[in-house]
Amino acid sequence: MSSFEPDIPAIILGLSAILLLFWSTRVEQNKKMFLIIGIAMAVFSIVSFIA
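Above: the chain's sequence. Below: its structure in token form.
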């Protein structure tokens, strides 16, 4: 099992995913692409944080 130390890349990915999700709600064009990227990054950061 992994030790319980803060995973910096996972935290950075999570924060950037939140920023992407917030930004995708403000941007009209390419909204679906930003939404897919944000969701994928959020899922990846959550999985890497749990693992």
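The chain has two helices and no strands.
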